[in-house]
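lol forgot to send this yesterday, sorry. struct tokens for the thing we talked abt
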């Protein structure tokens, strides 16, 4: 930390006086200043220098020498030369007028000139990078595990056909159908992926990038695609640089070049340059990089594909996307089902060979078993469900940049939200001023204290107005209209101060800065939390005056004197007591509080031509005069209180993470349902005990200062996350990142909302970063995975509900889909074990899986919630509890993270053969079984209840139903179950084919045709039996919290389209030749026998009802507890807050 100097004389205050024209001017009284502090040095990343091929680089090759050489060649070929030209030549080259002394007054380009250049050169956009072709994407879908096994089965059918054509004629159809089904399945998945990509691309166009450009001396916001070479841009903190630009004026501009050059630290940019390599030029900023602090004016020198980003190939490639929890669960389920299918196919192939010694027969049987297990349409169903949800969320003004975000939003357990612009309106209004020892009010209301501000000559008030006018970074779109009609570009807090000062000064406001120009500036940043400027503001001891504003506690530390009772006096403990009392009063009303100070610089040490330098810090850093405090009100947004209440009722922990004062943050938190209980300090005050004696169970809320975060122990972090009401105040970007990391380490699925550049690290780290569209910076939008188009926090609640609905519907869809596996597998087992005639062929199984089943399963995408608020009364599906935290920590202890690459910092992945070997070995280890048997907290996509219903309960009832229908229809033709078994068991003769020998039973002779048509009619009955039972199951699976009766079962009209389409398909394959021949259907089938299945369907419905009633008693649904004190009904008092008055001097 730089040493602090001690002033020799007391500094004096700013005063107003009139000039010859009667216009107010500023003067100051002299003071002596401390000496400059020692400077700081900065270094460049040596790896970066090598990678760029700098002449100053170390010649020793790095481990990635080949890559470095490639980068060197690229940097040599970059077509940028303007960085070596003076401003005059750049302006001449692009026919633009730029004013380096007063850049805001630059003329820029004429509108007609810009229009001509745009038409000539085209829009400022990059040619989209080459993507995988549609054919490549299709083959990727085709190469999924299920499809490859279907294709292999089809090829095997044709091999069998080649071995024995006569006995395997049916393989002509079977092999073709298996292969075609794989292609159809891949086509459906490919189409849905393509559709979802197009949907997301269309949604992302809803938030076009904007840039601030000066044309004809007017600052305007235009689409970044309309920028042309020669445009003068105004760049500020949070902007994404839209083109390659030549910087001719700046104030502490720093850019993040990591996306372009790999530099990890922000680089300072400004006028002047000595570097030959354009990527190292200090006066150039490039397309795609981010302004992380400061501001600048720059001339566009390259646009679109002519930018460095457009010239260097491969730099826009993104990182691999991590799988969402939902995708991991689906992938695990698919692998398990595929493993079961392969294993059972192998087992029954061996059984078939042992029993019948017939290779083609055993192969066909194994293929039938495999096809019966595999839910072929599941990947397409999942993709379609998420795509439809993304569209619905966009209609609710929630834009997801990735389909994974749809489900993640519904699964979040903790939501860390910024305050300003997210929970509040980001519309600051000055309410009170405390200066000269007195309280003043700029508004009049029933709660306001202090005397009204009647003029600008009041001591203390005029100084605050002057500092607000001069020490600012706010820009205007135009200055030829009154203040209230101008568009302000800048921070909301500073904009509020500027509007207040402008309303008091009137037309004199615009004259003050030209009359007292700024010679030095340190913009506000999250580390200092103040803004400092030096102006040509003459006083008795010199020509320069230092002005500063910022966080009150930071400003007070820099001051040794105070303006009090119209005098400059030493700062005493009594002054600090009054300051604390006033600060507490302002902050307790939920207002943002800023402090103001000044210092007149001694002309002997700081003459008029003195050159200040931020790096060497040759400016005073202490000895300032404290001028006063100003409070600004930023009311909560409408609907925020109710939205936070709904989040908390849904079991989601909501935390406020803000840079404001703890009292301000707590006051806002109490207005918006975020804080209801007492803090430890409040309990101590109420009970009259020391804070240290208050037990952890005596308070519910915590307000933590950001300065304490670095010192917190693991036990203290555990305590913080056990509390339901937590606010982090005065936080830095590093603090926010630490909070998110700690939450994730405990198993929280963490969502983070924010709109500023300081929020971007936490947005990127979170499981789901949520940025604001209208008030958010380009940096925050870049880092986030979800954007609120209307900046309405309440939209998050709609998104959470939609995410939960998608998970619930997906689970219902899988529950329904896998139920048909048991009635498909059991006939295959009976066929070889009993044996019985084949009830289902592989072709019929595929007709079920990819016919009516996929039609019905997709209808769950439109399934509404069972009740209006039911989903939001359930806890998150992965709640964080003490048990889950202990489990996670034990799991992490058993599974240490893999080693990382020292160069890239990424985990080192095993080779494919090592990975396969570990996967084979894993089930034979104790660790694998320990992980497998450990019961996890919360709800998973495929759980024991789902598997029990699908495979054991509903599946068996359906299997019994089809077996009864099968034997009843055979009995109609005169074949009893016993005779059917004997005919199937007789391996010396092949029955139930057209060319089968005659069979005589009870004096009745059955020809081959009789046997064949009897079996096909029985098979048709089986097919319809499965369909009818699944129609009942389709409605049963809709009910999770309610009994499967009522109007809610029929609200989704697409359900009727789904099973109606399935019925049409079955009719086609049953009654329409030649389809009935291919699918073994019988046009003689009589619907009378389907009533048996209807009866079993009614039994299934009754069983499901009884089952649900029993589960309600044995395993009741765990609803969230009711939170007492939540205010859930909006009123005119939603944003008002009553506080008690304090004894202040007025």
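and heres what i got for the seq, position by position
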């Amino acid at each position: 930390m730089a040493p602090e100097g001690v002033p020799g004389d007391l500094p004096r205050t700013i005063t107003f006086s009139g000039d010859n024209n009667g216009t107010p001017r500023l003067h100051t009284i002299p003071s002596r200043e401390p000496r400059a502090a020692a400077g700081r040095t900065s270094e460049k990343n040596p790896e970066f220098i090598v990678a760029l091929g700098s002449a100053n680089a170390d010649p020793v090759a790095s481990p990635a020498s080949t890559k470095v050489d490639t980068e060197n060649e690229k940097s040599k070929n970059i077509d940028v030369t303007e960085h070596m030209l003076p401003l005059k030549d750049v302006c001449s080259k692009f026919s633009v007028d730029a004013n380096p002394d007063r850049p805001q007054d630059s003329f820029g380009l004429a509108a007609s000139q810009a229009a001509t250049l745009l038409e000539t050169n085209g829009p400022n956009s990059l040619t989209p990078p080459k993507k995988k072709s549609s054919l490549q994407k299709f083959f990727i879908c085709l190469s999924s595990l299920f499809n490859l096994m279907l294709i292999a089965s089809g090829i095997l059918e044709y091999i069998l056909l080649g071995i024995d054509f006569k006995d395997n004629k049916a393989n002509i159809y079977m092999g073709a159908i298996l292969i075609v089904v794989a292609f159809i399945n891949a086509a459906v998945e490919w189409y849905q992926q393509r559709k979802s990509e197009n949907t997301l691309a269309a949604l992302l166009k809803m938030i076009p990038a904007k840039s601030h450009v000066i044309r004809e001396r007017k600052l305007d916001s235009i689409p970044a695609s309309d920028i042309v070479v020669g445009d003068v841009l105004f760049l500020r903190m949070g902007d994404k640089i839209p083109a390659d630009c030549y910087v001719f004026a700046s104030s502490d501009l720093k850019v993040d070049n990591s996306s372009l050059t790999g530099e990890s630290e922000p680089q300072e940019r400004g006028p002047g340059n000595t570097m030959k390599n354009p990527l190292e030029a200090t006066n150039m900023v490039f397309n795609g990089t981010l302004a992380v602090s400061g501001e600048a004016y720059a001339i566009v020198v390259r646009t679109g594909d002519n930018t460095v980003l457009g010239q260097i190939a491969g730099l826009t490639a993104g990182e691999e996307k991590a799988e969402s929890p939902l995708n991991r669960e689906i992938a695990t389920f698919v692998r398990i089902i595929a493993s079961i299918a392969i294993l059972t196919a192998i087992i029954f192939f061996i059984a078939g060979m042992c029993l019948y010694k017939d290779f083609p027969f055993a192969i066909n049987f194994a293929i039938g078993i495999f096809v019966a297990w595999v839910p072929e349409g599941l990947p397409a169903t999942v993709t379609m469900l998420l795509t439809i949800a993304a569209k619905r969320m966009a209609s609710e003004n929630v834009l997801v940049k990735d389909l994974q975000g749809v489900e993640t939003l519904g699964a979040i357990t903790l939501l860390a939200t910024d305050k300003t612009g997210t929970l509040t309106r980001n519309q600051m209004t000055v309410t009170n001023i405390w200066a000269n020892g007195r309280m003043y009010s700029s508004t009049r209301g029933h709660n306001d204290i202090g005397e009204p501000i009647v003029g600008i000559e009041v001591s203390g008030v005029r100084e605050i107005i002057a500092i607000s006018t001069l020490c600012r970074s706010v820009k205007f779109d135009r200055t030829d209209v009154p203040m209230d009609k101008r568009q302000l570009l800048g921070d909301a807090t500073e904009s509020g101060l500027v509007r207040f000062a402008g309303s008091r000064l009137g037309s004199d406001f615009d004259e003050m800065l030209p009359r007292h120009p700024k010679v030095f500036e340190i913009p506000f940043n999250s580390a200092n939390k103040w803004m400092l400027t030096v102006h040509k503001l003459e006083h008795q001891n010199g020509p320069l005056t230092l002005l500063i504003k910022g966080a009150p506690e930071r400003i007070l530390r820099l001051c040794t004197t105070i303006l009090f009772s119209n005098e400059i006096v030493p700062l005493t403990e009594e002054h600090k007591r009054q300051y604390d009392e006033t600060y507490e009063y302002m902050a307790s009303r939920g207002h943002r509080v800023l402090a103001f100070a000044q210092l007149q610089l001694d002309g002997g040490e700081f003459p008029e031509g003195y050159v200040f330098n931020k790096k060497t810090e040759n400016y005073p850093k202490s000895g300032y005069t404290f001028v006063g405090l100003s409070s600004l009100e930023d009311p909560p947004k409408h609907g925020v209180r109710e939205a936070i209440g709904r989040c908390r009722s849904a079991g989601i922990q909501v935390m406020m993470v803000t840079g404001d004062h703890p009292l301000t943050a707590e006051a806002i938190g109490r207005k918006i349902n975020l804080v209801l209980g007492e803090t430890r300090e409040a309990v101590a005050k109420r009970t009259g005990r020391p804070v240290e004696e208050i037990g952890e169970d005596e308070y519910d809320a915590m307000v933590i200062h950001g300065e304490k975060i670095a010192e917190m122990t693991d036990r203290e972090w555990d305590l913080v996350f056990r509390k339901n009401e937590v606010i982090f105040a005065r936080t830095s970007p590093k603090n926010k990142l630490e909070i998110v990391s700690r939450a994730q380490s405990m198993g929280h699925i963490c969502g983070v909302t924010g709109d500023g550049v300081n929020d971007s690290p936490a947005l990127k780290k979170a499981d789901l970063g949520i940025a604001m569209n209208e008030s958010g910076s380009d940096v925050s939008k870049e880092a986030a995975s979800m954007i609120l188009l209307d900046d309405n926090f309440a939209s998050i609640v709609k998104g959470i509900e939609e995410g939960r609905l998608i998970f619930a519907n997906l689970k219902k869809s899988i529950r329904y889909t896998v139920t048909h596996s048991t009635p498909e597998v059991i006939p295959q087992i009976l066929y070889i074990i009993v044996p019985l005639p084949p009830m289902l062929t592989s072709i019929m199984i595929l007709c079920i899986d990819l016919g009516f089943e996929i039609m019905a399963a997709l209808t769950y995408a439109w399934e509404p919630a069972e009740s209006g608020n039911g989903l939001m009364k359930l806890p998150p599906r992965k709640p964080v509890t003490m048990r889950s935290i202990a489990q996670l920590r034990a799991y992490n202890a058993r599974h240490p993270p893999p080693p990382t690459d020292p160069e890239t910092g990424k985990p080192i992945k095993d080779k494919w053969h090592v990975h396969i070997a570990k996967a084979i070995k894993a089930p034979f280890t104790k660790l694998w079984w320990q992980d497998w048997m450990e019961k996890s907290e919360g709800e998973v996509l495929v759980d024991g209840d789902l598997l029990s219903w699908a495979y054991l309960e509903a599946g068996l009832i359906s299997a019994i139903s089809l077996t009864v229908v099968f034997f009843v229809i055979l009995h109609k033709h005169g074949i009893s179950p016993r005779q059917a078994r004997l005919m199937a068991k007789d391996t010396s003769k092949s029955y139930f084919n057209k060319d089968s020998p005659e069979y005589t039973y009870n004096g009745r002779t059955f020809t081959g045709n009789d046997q064949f048509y009897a079996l096909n009619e029985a098979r048709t009955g089986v097919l319809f039996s499965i369909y009818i039972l699944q129609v009942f199951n389709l409605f049963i699976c809709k009910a999770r919290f309610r009994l499967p009766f009522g109007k809610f079962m029929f609200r989704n009209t697409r359900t009727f389209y789904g099973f109606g389409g399935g019925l049409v398909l079955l009719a086609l394959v049953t009654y329409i030749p030649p389809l009935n021949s291919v699918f073994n259907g019988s046009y003689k089938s009589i619907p009378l026998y389907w009533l048996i299945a209807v009866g079993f369907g009614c039994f299934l419905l009754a069983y499901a009802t009884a089952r649900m009633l029993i589960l309600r008693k044995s395993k009741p649904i765990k609803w969230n507890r009711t939170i007492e004190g939540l205010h859930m009904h909006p009123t005119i008092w939603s944003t008002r807050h009553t506080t008690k008055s304090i004894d202040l001097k007025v």
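Confidence is low (pLDDT under 50) at residues 1-76, 313-321, 1132-1146. anyway ping me if u want another try
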